[in-house]
Amino acid sequence: MTAVAAPVRLAGPGRLRRWRPGRAAVVALILVGIAVALAPVYWMLATSLKTPFAATSLTPSYFPHHLSMSNYNELLVKGVVPFKTYLANSVLTSVIASVVAVAISALAGYSFSRSRWRLRGPTSVAVLATQMLPLVVFVGPLYLLLLDAHLLNTYTGLVIGYTSFAIPFGSWLMKGFFDSVPVELEEAARVDGYGRLSILFRVVIPTVIPGLLTTGVFVFINSWNNLLYPLTLITNNSHQTLPPGLLDSFVGEFNTDWGGMMAAAVLTTIPLAVAFFAVQRYMVRGMTAGALAGT
Amino acid sequence: MASISVRDVEKRFGNGPAVLRECNLDIADHEFLVLVGPSGSGKTTLLRIIAGLEAATSGEIYFGDRLVNDVDVGDRDIAMVFQNYGLYPHMTVRNNMAFGLRRRKLPKDAIDQKVREAATMLGIENLLDRRPRQLSGGQRQRVALGRAIVRDPAVFLLDEPLSNLDAHLRLQMRTEILRVHRAVTATTVYVTHDQVEAMTMGDRIAVMNNGLIQQVGTPEELYDRPVNRFVAGFIGTPAMGFLTCSVNRNGDRAELVRDGVCLRLTEEQSRKLTLPHGAAVVAGVRPENLRPVSADGSDSEVSVVKGAIEVVEPLGPEQHLVVDVGGEMVTARVDRDVAARRGEKVSLAVGAGRAHVFSIDSGEALL
Question: Which among A4, A231, B67, B226 has most CB atoms closer than 10 A?
């Protein structure tokens, strides 16, 4: 009689793989990376919830022992600092800069990608070359230009500043997205009887929405975080944005209100996080999936 | 509907060499013409010039009596199926098909009806609300066809539409395209590099190579009377075998000879072949015209090719023997019952008058 071994229940292959030493090391490394990345965020959040005394204690505690909303209360309710004005200015200028920069970058990127015109190569490289210089280099010339145009201390001037630095990179970013759009789509639309602009807006732009969102988020984050331009181009407090506004409000000669600054920082981060998570799902998958055979 | 005339068309990209030269082609109304050739032969470029997606460097394109060189692609009343389909990824199948009709400002009801009819014809009516990424390769192909036929065009252009499908689906879609062609009766130009596709689908075939149209004719004409060695070798599977021989004149009759080869020409062929005794030529023999015979029982009146079997390819109902004849390979299509082994010596008889003869220099057919 042939003996048949009783079936032995083994851990599934997935389970075995999960606990391999190499895999565990990778997971540990990722966790350390996440901790390092999130530590400042945690510290910002924790400090914003501490009392003023705890926030400035010489022996800082890692956890707020007494949760206090006083910093938020002072910012949002008491209005000690014109936080809402700064916030509104930041939202207004960053959103307008994003929309303008995306529109111009999309048209420029499409031209770099598809049009065949003289000096296209040198022009596109020259545009990219502007990104090799630090932001501060442009502040002087920009200040003088806006001074001549009577646009200092205006939202328009600030938006021009933001977009002037964002458009070159945005154009290249968009060029990459347009390059990935199959030419067959445009040719199919030409056969269908559509003209160049109709093709751009009805066929090409809808397939590069992830690119538009990426460019938009890029410009928004850069504008939102920009300290140098508003600090230089805006001296009127009613037009000031969050970064220089907060710097001015919480950092004094003899004292820094860390709790208040962290509460403001938390509130400043929220729109960025919302913007990023709102568009994240569009950025994951390319819109051209299914356009061609094998995609 | 429209006939198409291509007159002396030449195409260069920039200052580069001509990719199309002296192209002349007349395509009759309702005809299904296949442009076939290897990669880089210029067939897609010619199709794109007919479509208006490329401009010819010189030459003229007529649709009927109308010169269309300067007519925009959207005004040529054509529909095109691209090699990679080119479906609009952000639109549903319904909108993909309706997109061209909306440009023509047709009433919504008419558009819906046309889309439904085309979808029914192609069996994709249940896919109308899906997006291209949710479709299989065959379904995308049908949608691309549907997008073209819904326009009811005068000229239907297809650029290697089956090249991305597997063999089974390709066979199925081949039939489908022919069915659609019969239904819409538009003048059709179909580009492929697959000569089997060309032979099975085309009313006529234009064989292209190196930017030149080598020969235009029905599948039978191209197969039986190729004008040069390229067409002879390109059309037919397995390909025609070529053997370098010399002409041996013996009275009224001529034969093509070399070591292990003796191809006797018919009286008529001998008369037509004007080359003198000893002249070098290339003989071409189709695989189905070669049949194994016993070496000792050879008839002096029968043409024979002797060689060693290099490869045996069993194909089920038949087998292909690749035979080395003094360094040149010929393929014989033989019955599956023929016992053949690699390395075995074999004598192959060639049917009377079945040998093709080509110039050794120009490759032009001499008979």
Answer: B226
